[in-house]
Amino acid sequence: MADYYQVLGISKNATSDEIKKAYRKQALKFHPDRNPNDPTAEAQFKKVSEAYEILSDDNKRRTYDQYGEEAVKSGGFGGMPGGGFSSMEEALRTFMGAFGAGEGSGGGGSIFDSLFGFDTSDEGAVKGTSKKVSLTISFEEAISGTDKEMAISNHVACDACDGKGAKSSKDIQTCPTCRGTGQIYQSRGFFSMATTCSRCHGNGKVIVNPCPECHGYGRIKKKQNVKIHIPAGVDSNMRLKMSGYGDAGEGGGPAGDLFVFITVKPHDAFIREGDDVYLDIPITFSEAALGTKKDVPTPHGDSSKIIIPEGTQNSKLLRIKEKGFPNVHGNGFGDLLVRLNIETPVRLSSKQKELFEELKELESPGNHPQKSSFLDKLKSFFS
Question: What is the CATH number of the domain that holds 292?
Fold first, then answer.
């Protein structure tokens, strides 16, 4: 007579988890797909499956511990009238149950998939479809942040049946085809295969009286307003993720997500580069030569004073710290860079022309260092 505890290599005080762990190890070792054309391995596979069938059930284990192997066999537990499993299919069904659907990625399900190619995942729970929307905001809204409201059409859980798809809870029954496993098991000699049940699509449950509102789908399409928070500092081509705002899941699965793709309208004067902002302002010859002070606008709606030094050259950049865009991740502010463009006067009056002529007569090489340097380079080229 077999000692089921010895067959699995465990003590009589083993816990349920220890029993399952020991069985998985032995079952994988002796599985027919890993030991083709080996009757000994097949017999041992049936034996460890038989041991697990008894010891994993508290009532059967208690009977076995009190009265021995014959007591559980004579009772026909686990489809074993007369002793042992009547077929390899029954042993394989026990194997599939021990490597049941819905366990974590570190559990038996993933090992079973990789060794034998079966899919024991919980196909009933499906995450809802994620959605994508595009949103255009102004330059000012991007720098300060804003809240927007959009109307979107989503599949949401049916209120009438709470997403169950049935008129009432009693109208959801165990699938008679797969008996609630969600899988159909077939055995051809030493080759075994599991396929998704075509009647319940892997759910293990069937709806016998569908909800009249959603017709059994558990979801309905509904238009709803969604408030979208736009954080300060967003830029074009950034994507905001709103978890759970996509379509409702199926079979108890989580809702999908809503992805908001941002476009920021360009400003008439300010030009953004990263978190920095550029502003071109024109100044006169006199202001550039003599120097001056100016108030310049900032993207935040206020103004800052800049000092234009005497002898300023065209395209000179003046930096105003932390007057650019806020960093969208909260890492401070960019700067405002003011580019000075010296504007040549047009439509001069007679008096202005006279003064410029006089100025030209008074100019010396020291007044124009860039011009002098350029002429020196040309001299060396032609010498």
Answer: 2.60.260.20
> What sign for the dihedral angle of Cα 28, 30, 33, 34?
positive
Residue 345's domain comprises 270-377
The dihedral formed by the CA atoms of 286, 288, 293 and 296, expressed in degrees to the nearest 10: 110
52: Cβ contacts below 8 Å, ≥ 6 apart: 8, 19, 20, 23, 27, 94, 98
Which two tokens mark 311? Answer: 């002898």
pLDDT surpasses 70 at 340: yes
| Per-position b or e across 299-324, b if 16+ CB within 10 A of its CB | bbeeebebebeeebeeebebebeebb
Examine the pLDDT at 61 and tell me if it is beyond 80. Answer: yes
> Which residue, 76, 99, 116, sits at the end of a domain?
116
* Count of C-beta atoms within a 10 Å radius of residue 184: 15
Q: Work out how many domains the chain is built from and give that number.
A: 2
Strand partners, 380: none
Q: Which amino acid is at 4?
A: Y
Per the DSSP assignment, residues forming a β-bridge with 262 are 135
Answer with the one of 101, 116, 131 that is the final residue of a domain: 116
Which pLDDT band, with edges at 50, 70 and 90, does 111 fall under? very low
Phi and psi angles of residue 11, each rounded to the nearest 5 degrees, phi first: -85, 165
Eight-state DSSP code of residue 166? B
Look at the pTM and tell me if it is higher than 0.70. Answer: no
pLDDT at residue 275 is higher than 80: yes
Contact 177, 195 (CB under 8 A): no
SS3 call for 196 = strand
- What is the signed CA dihedral for 45, 2, 7, 92, rounded to 10 degrees? 20
136, part of any domain: no
